[in-house]
Specification:
Elements lengths: L2 H6 L9 E7 L6 H9 L6 E7 L6 H8 L5 E5 L5 H10 L5 E5 L3 E3 L3 H11 L4 E12 L2 E4 L11 H7 L11 E3 L5 E3 L3 H4 L5 E2 L6 E5 H5 L13 H11 L4 E12 L15 H9 L1 H5 L8 H17 L5 H27 L6 H4 L7
Parallel strand pairs: 1-2, 1-4, 2-3, 6-12
Antiparallel strand pairs: 4-11, 5-12, 6-7, 6-11, 8-9, 10-12
């Protein structure tokens, strides 16, 4: 019996309709594998909104062919970047649940089934799950072995990087009052420890449809660094709770850096570092727990860290230090313009780093 036939015999399992939003750009080589994974879903009450940034690689034709089996609404993106693409898709969504999926992430067959199960049985507004790094060779997945990493920070570094925002102390990932993102262990660590509270993160997420459609993130990213954390923060500020579940699984294809969708060269470490620095300034007026003193302490520590390891990879660590410096300049300019009521978008300056190697 196929998954579709099984669910037809159990209508109660079909009472949540899901819209899966997938932004895509130059992924014609991967999309057939992704679409096949969606066809195999054990939960079939879903439709797709695929946001395509045209590239001439045949993506539109692939989607047209797949629409004979899957319910696909193809939306063309004519401007903007990755965050704009996601929210363009959200605007075209109609599901009770909206799942956000990267175009290089292959969902496990029960990905939607496990996602819906959480919304049906527990009081959560958002779900994020496990992600296995894989190589795709001759159409077959090869899972890359991972070592458990309990935390990216030592106790000493936690003290200097700032404190988690009150209310996020027990979250798998959280935002510190210095504007730094805390990751309390990698997926290999948490998949052995079960579900836990978490802000949204990773190549797949799901949010209650009406809640997500009531949110609109400003178009102020190029690469989208930490945009999921900002979305999760918005949900948390509204009083909603989110969860990480290792049962919600996708296989994330490793093929180089993937955040850049609008130009041929991979994103640069510098641009990513600058966008990461702007998290503090994105939230500055709306999150009273943020501390400029904690921000300064974390900046000094991170610059010292980059200089300490300069010999191991001088180009990378110099870009990290440069990103901290430039990010703070842009961020301060952003805050000052807001205070003065002047019109300014950080995109004006972020665009200058796009072509740097």
């Amino acid at each position: 019996m196929t998954p579709m036939e099984s669910q037809k015999n159990n209508p109660a399992q079909q009472n949540y309709r899901v819209t899966v939003v997938i932004p895509t750009y130059k992924r014609a080589d991967i999309l057939p594998h992704l679409l096949s994974a969606l066809k195999r879903q054990t939960y079939q009450n879903f439709d797709l909104v695929v946001v395509v940034k045209p590239s001439g690689d045949g993506t539109e034709e692939l989607l047209k062919q797949a629409s004979t089996i899957l319910k696909i609404n193809t939306v063309i993106q004519t401007q903007g970047y990755i965050v704009d693409a996601y929210f363009l898709g959200v605007k075209h969504s109609t599901g009770d649940i909206v799942a956000l999926l990267d175009d290089d992430a292959l969902p496990a067959d029960n990905w939607l089934e496990e996602t819906v199960k959480i919304f049906k049985t527990q009081n959560f507004a958002g779900v994020t799950g496990d992600s296995f790094p894989v190589l795709l060779k001759n159409g077959q997945m090869q899972i890359i072995a991972e070592s458990e990493t309990p935390s990216v920070l030592s106790h000493y570094e936690f003290a200097l990087f700032g404190r988690p925002l009150k209310g996020l102390e027990e979250y798998k990932n959280c935002i510190a009052n210095s504007g730094i993102v805390y990751e309390r262990g990698n997926n290999a660590y948490w998949r052995k420890r079960g579900a836990t509270k978490a802000l949204l993160r990773g190549p797949s997420m799901a949010v209650l449809g009406d809640v997500l459609r009531s949110i609109d993130l400003p178009s102020e990213w190029i690469l989208g660094c930490a945009w999921e954390m900002v979305l999760g923060w918005q949900l948390w500020k509204r009083g909603y709770t989110m969860i990480y579940s290792p049962n919600v699984k996708v296989y994330h294809i490793v093929h180089g850096r993937t955040s850049s969708r609008d130009f041929l060269n991979p994103r640069t470490d510098l641009l990513w570092a600058v966008e990461a620095e702007l998290l503090f300034y994105r939230l500055y007026h709306d999150e009273p727990q943020l501390s400029t003193i904690s921000k300064l302490e974390s900046d000094i520590l991170r610059v010292v860290h980059s200089l300490k390891y300069l010999r191991s990879n001088s180009k990378y660590h110099l870009r990290m230090a440069e990103g901290i410096f430039l990010g703070n300049i842009i961020g301060a300019k952003w805050v000052l313009c807001k205070m003065l009521g002047a019109s300014y978008s950080p995109l004006t300056d972020l665009m200058k780093f796009r072509s740097k190697k």
